[in-house]
Structure formats: C-alpha cells, structure tokens
Design goal:
With 359 residues, this protein is mainly alpha-helical. It is 63% helix and 4% strand. It is built from 13 helices and six strands.
C-alpha cells in the first residue's frame, strides 16, 4: 500500500488510486463548499412551470434501476490492457469518480444545511444520482482491485470555497460538458462496438441524461434571477467558460492511448464536445466562446504543449525542474489570459430555457 502524508498525518491504508483522487492540482476535480445561507434565499417562482416539471422528473428517478452490472463485467481483465492504456483509463475513471463524488458531497451538504424546502429537495435528488455514478465507477475500479476509499476523500480532500454564483456557473458547465463528453463517446461506440474495450461505456447514455437534468436545474436557478447572467457577472461567465473548456482539452490531450483505443481523434472529439456544450449554454448564458476563431484554436494547442512541459519539469525535480515549472506556469497563465481576451459572441437568451437531451 502507498503511504500518504496529509498535513503531518500518516495514512497507511490508502491505495494508489485513492491517492490520485485525493491529490489537488490545477486539473484535478475539486471538492467545493459555499455560502449555504445565501443559497437558501433562492426563489424559483419566476421559473415555476419549468421547475416543477424538472423536479417531478427527478422525483420519478428514471435511472433507479440502470446502474447494475451485467455478465459483460465478468469478461474484463484490467491486466490484459496495454500498460499505457490501463494507466490512462484508470486516470479517466478516477477523475470521473472524483468529479461525480465531489458533486455528491456538495449537494448532500446543501441539503443538510439548507432550510429552503424546494432547493433541499432538488439537491437530495442530485446527490442521490451522483452517489450512484461514483459508486458505479468505483465498482469498475474494484474489478481491478483498485477501488477508491470514498470515506477518506470526504474527510481529507481539500475543499475550495466558491460563492454561490460561482458554484452555479462551474457546476452548470461541469454537468453540461459531462453530458456532451459521455454522449459523444456513447454515440461513437454505437457505430464502432468493437472499440468498446470496457462495458462501462454501455451505461453512458442514461448516465449522461442524469448530468443533463442536473445542468437544467442550475440553468433554472440562474434564470430565476437576472443578476446571475448580467452586468459584471458576464465577465465571470466568460472566465468559467474558458477555464472549463481549456481544462477539458488539456486533460484529453494527456490521454492519447485512451483515445487511440477508442479510435477517437482527440481534435475531433474536443471540437464536438465544445460545440455541443456551447450550443446548450445558449439557453442561459448571454455570450458564447467563438470556437471558430483561429486564435482560440491556436491558444488551446499552445496551452496543451505548455502544460505537458510543466508536467515534465515537475517530474524532473530539483531546483532546475522547479524553475522550469514556474516559467511554464507563467507562460500558461499568459496563454489563458490571451484566450480570455478573444472577443466572445453575443447570444439572445430564449424566454424558456428548459431543454431535453437530443444529441
């Protein structure tokens, strides 16, 4: 077992995948906390019709019987995967699990500490869904004997404070881009079933429909009060759009063996996912990223190369490695600023924001 030192506390019973999920970096999914009292003041009367329909759908729990393993799981041997594919697939699963469990922890805490019955009901359904997702991924990892200790993560992972509006922007985008990612892989493997090297991909369609519903909830929350999507907050929306999009692209380019095994061209995949996500966000955001701008595409490529150099410098260690790491970090920040400064496209938000998964 790998030993993990956490703020002078030695933990001997944590395996390598739990340590991966516990690690806090720029790219790893984070755990969040927020101002729960402020969130308690939400009023959804202005979106009542759409809200009641969404809550009714969530209450019916359409995926309650979906996340159960079948005999397909008996035919999987993690050790038979090529070493680099195995490493990147595990990284994909751990990252996905951490993101799902992060949502579960946050939503559960919102429900526990809130007094607004409508908002608490929403978060009870969302925490239920995310717990299922995280548990299902953990089942896949346990098949390889490398499951993540979720209790340890709850207690020991660093929590990042976001104001409620930042939670809405970040989580809305996380849920919607998660939908776009899962459905794109699912549709690709429908056409290329011989590239489905693990059965978990068969669950992606209904899984991502949960993600879509969760995103709809945050869209309605933002729609309930115009201040969330106007004034200075438009600049914050753009920040989160650039940050979430760029983070996804960097992560994907760090998993070439994973995408090769799926027979997915990374450039095509990222462009497809960003296009779908951008189309969806028109339901509530007054701006969208100009994905066709040559500066946007060039900036993302530069960012991927720079992050790769940062990782190499970090692994090299020593004073020289640290100096290189900070140099590349500064370069990455400047590239990010350049991406942020690319003019965005204005969007006329429709009166009714409710969408259904249709990709």
């Amino acid at each position: 077992m790998k030993e993990v030192d956490y703020q002078n506390e030695r933990v001997d019973s944590i395996n390598e995948t739990t340590a991966m999920a516990h690690e806090t970096t720029l790219l790893n999914p984070r755990f969040y906390t927020t101002n729960f009292k402020e969130m308690d003041q939400l009023n959804v009367e202005s979106v009542r019709k759409d809200w009641d329909e969404l809550i009714s759908e969530m209450k019916s729990d359409p995926n309650r019987t979906h996340f159960k393993k079948t005999e397909d799981w008996d035919q999987i041997d993690f050790k038979s995967l090529e070493p680099e594919l195995r490493k990147e697939f595990i990284d994909f699963l751990v990252s996905s699990l951490t993101a799902e469990f992060s949502g579960c922890v946050l939503y559960k805490e919102m429900k526990r500490r809130g007094t607004n019955e409508e908002i608490c009901e929403l978060f009870s359904y969302m925490s239920r869904d995310e717990a299922r997702h995280a548990g299902f991924i953990n089942d896949a990892l346990r098949e390889a004997g490398i499951g993540v200790n979720l209790g340890f993560l709850t207690r020991k992972k660093n929590y990042t404070y976001f104001t409620p509006k930042f939670i809405y922007y970040a989580t809305y985008l996380s849920e919607k881009i998660g939908y776009a990612r899962y459905i794109t892989i699912y549709r690709h493997l429908e056409k290329n079933p011989n590239k489905r090297f693990h059965p978990i991909f068969k669950w992606f369609e209904k899984w991502c429909n949960d993600e879509f519903r969760h995103g709809e909830a945050f869209a309605l929350i933002m729609k309930s009060d115009p201040k969330f999507t106007s004034g200075i907050n438009v600049y914050w929306i753009k920040f989160f759009l650039v940050a979430v999009f760029a983070t996804m692209v960097i992560r994907d380019h760090a998993r070439p063996a994973f995408h090769k095994a799926l027979d997915v061209d990374i450039e095509w995949y990222d462009e497809t996912v960003l296009r779908i996500t951008s189309e969806i966000t028109r339901q509530v955001f007054p701006i969208e990223i100009d994905l066709e701008n040559p500066k946007w595409k060039l900036g993302l490529k530069k960012l991927c190369v720079t992050f790769d150099s940062m990782e190499k410098a970090k692994r090299s260690g020593g004073i020289r490695g640290k100096l290189k790491y900070y140099t590349y970090s500064t370069r990455a920040l400047m590239i990010f600023v350049g991406l942020y400064l690319i003019p965005s496209k204005k969007n006329l938000v429709p009166e009714t924001s409710r969408l259904q998964p249709s990709y």
